[in-house]
Amino acid sequence: MSLRPDLAIIANNVASGSRVLDIGCGDGELMAVLRDAKGCDARGIEIDGANVSAAVARGLSVIQGDADTDLINYPDDTYDYAILSQTLQTARSPDRVLDDLLRIGRRAFVSFPNFAYWRVRWSLMWSGRMPVTAALPVSWYETENIHQLTIEDFRAFVAERGITVENAWFLSGDRRRGAAAANLRAEQAVFLLRR
Amino acid sequence: MSDDARFGLARTVSLPGPLALDGGARLSPVEIAYETYGTLNADGSNAILICHALTGDHHVASTHPITGKPGWWTRMVGAGKPIDPARHFIICSNVLGSCLGSSGPASKDPGGAPYAMRFPVITIRDMVRAQAMLVDHLGIGTLQAVVGGSMGGMQVLEWAATYPDRVRSAVVIASAARHSAQNIAFHEVGRQAIMADPQWRGGDYYADGKAPTAGLAVARMAAHITYLSEAGLTEKFGRRLQKRDAKSFGFDADFQIESYLRHQGISFVDRFDANSYLYITRAMDYFDLAEEHGGLLANAFKGTNTRFCMVSFDTDWLYPTSESRAVVHALNAAGAAVSFVELSSPFGHDAFLLDVPELNRVVDGFLRAGE
């Protein structure tokens, strides 16, 4: 089983044996890898009931919940890592969610689609239509992405908040892109943050 | 199966006790009716205790000796089911206060007369303490899992809070950590129906066999409504008439729903004791796990190593998802390993007893991960 590229990066960079909270864990594919290959104590939150059932049925500790409303119930400093993959842009209050991530976890992995990727810009510029791409596959009226952002937006956002970027990875498909032109050339980004 | 008389179907044991009850009384001896299925493995690590609901019994997966009906949870317990005698040693006991084999108001007091209302008021924790005595008697230290729905789920939570080192996994289905005002209200309607029946006579009706069946039937009818969803009732009965083409302009059971509820009430009184109904509903109303732990539910699970699986149903308005969520939040705050899912079912609270394949998948995966 091969993980989605952003999840593979996260899986490769989580320390073995750590405590991990995966927010928006889907059916638990990353959690299962972290548990089986890295000996992590992985817990998850997922909004979709069918995904939760699938994750629990594979023996994972996953609760049905919403990042916007349920993170407040987690005590400080309980996890080595909080993971938010492809979910930040769907949150009602991404700023509060990010605060909670770094309150609950000492470090946080955040991955999101980059709205400044050149194909997105191309689509807006030449067809004047909201982009539908591999990373943004859903039309404007049914997308869950209510807070679209770019890599530059995110860099500025964490800088304003005094959050340390420990590492960052930029991807186009499953190919890595350099940091310099990432805002144009990367379809998605993975950041490792520290308080 | 071994020839150990402690194991098997339709067992009864009289434990000397005394069992110190939350209300201050001491009960001795303590009769417990129970059944076991499967074989305890060499290191005693495969025991699963199943806790039943308000009017349930210990015949979880065996034919009921009186009604001839199959066990009440054969969808969950049996060959090829999530709880499987081929893999697990399964225990199910009748709760304290009941009338189906364990000590309750219909039991004889030390003087030889039925306790009736002289039976001490009991709590969910008392029921669990009695179960722990049984588990001791069976020679089991730690349970692989304690599993239950509705009032059974309350017992599971109480087990995890009272005996955290004896429960490795806890499965709580369609339940709550406390009885809400609405829950208490419905129970009070039932109790008043029983006590308003002239045959109740302060609970002393055992001698002449004239039990307050009319009151008990009404109590069951009111309670039964809470076990079903409105959509389920509408689909099953709607406003359809019962074996007639027009309204009778009288008070006969014109509507199918009336006929159905009357049937539920009447058939219930054949198998249940009115005083037991008073005692067990009281135990549920008194249940508030947070109150037992300084008002903070998370304190009930502080430092726990038990894994939890909570399941609610979207159409259950008796113990709605919000009640399960409150428990999940407390478990998170306590750092416990917890899984939680709200499953979709049209059947309301009763869904936990009915055919919901997703429930079996979740429970099966959760139990296997702990084995």
From TrEMBL, chain A:
InterPro entries: Methionine_synth_MetW (IPR010743), SAM-dependent_MTases_sf (IPR029063). Gene3D superfamilies: Vaccinia Virus protein VP39 (3.40.50.150). It holds the Pfam family MetW. SUPFAM superfamilies: S-adenosyl-L-methionine-dependent methyltransferases. This is Methionine biosynthesis protein MetW. It comes from Sphingomonas montanisoli.
Automatic annotation (TrEMBL), chain B:
GO terms for biological process: homoserine metabolic process; methionine biosynthetic process. Substrate binds at R220, D350. GO terms for cellular component: cytoplasm. Coiled coil: none annotated. Pfam families: Abhydrolase_1. Pathway: Amino-acid biosynthesis; L-methionine biosynthesis via de novo pathway; O-acetyl-L-homoserine from L-homoserine: step 1/1. One of its GO terms (molecular function) is homoserine O-acetyltransferase activity. It catalyses: L-homoserine + acetyl-CoA = O-acetyl-L-homoserine + CoA. Residues 46-353 form the AB hydrolase-1 domain. Its EC number is 2.3.1.31. It comes from the Bacteria. Its main location: cytoplasm. Gene3D superfamilies: alpha/beta hydrolase. InterPro entries: AB_hydrolase_1, AB_hydrolase_fold, HAT_MetX-like. The active site is at S150, D316, H349. Keywords: Acyltransferase, Amino-acid biosynthesis, Cytoplasm, Methionine biosynthesis, Transferase. It is found in: Cytoplasm. Belongs to the AB hydrolase superfamily. MetX family. NCBIfam families: homoserO_Ac_trn, PRK00175.1. Transfers an acetyl group from acetyl-CoA to L-homoserine, forming acetyl-L-homoserine. Homodimer. This is Homoserine O-acetyltransferase. It comes from Sphingomonas montanisoli. The gene is metXA.
